[in-house]
Amino acid sequence: MLQISILLHLLIIGFMIFFMTVITPSVFNTLNEDTAGKFLRFTFPRMFLYGFILSFFAFVTALISGDVIFYSVPLISGLFFLFNTYAITPKINLYRDKFKAGELIFEKKFKQFHFISVFIFLCQLLSSISLVVLYFI
């Protein structure tokens, strides 16, 4: 069962790198700002939920194997996917809208919440990479 959990972490790594290196840059290079914003507001919450689902199944399969590290990391990572979806992303969207409407004081809040979201995302990616490396050592 631990092998299935590792496979799920490889899927997590793959989709996260794909979003960072292909989707997001492509959106900003091909769409205007308003269309890009609409697309990303639609896509990112779904991507975070996809990450939660994969993390949940990685947690369950690792839990069956009984290895604390291998089930603790996807549990925490999965919870952070939900946190990013339901707590951070709405704040990012709110502060971005207020800033674009001319309320310049919200630019700093937007940047802070966006940084938190990116930081969590990178930590999740690194945690999945760490588990895969640990498994193969």
What does this structure look like?
This protein has one domain. The model has no long low-confidence stretch (mean pLDDT 96). The longest helix has 33 residues, at 33-65. It contains 4 helices and no strands. With 137 residues, the chain is an all-alpha fold.
Largest sheet: none
Order of helices and strands: HHHH
Shape, per Cα inertia axes: elongated
Low-pLDDT sequence parts: none
Domain count, please report it.
1
What is the overall number of helices?
4
Structural descriptors:
single chain; 137 residues; mainly alpha
Short description:
This protein has 137 residues and is mainly alpha-helical. Helices cover 92% and strands 0% of the residues. The chain has one domain.
Explain the layout of strands and helices.
Elements: H1 2-30, H2 33-65, H3 68-100, H4 106-136
Helix pairs in contact: 1-2, 1-4, 2-3, 3-4
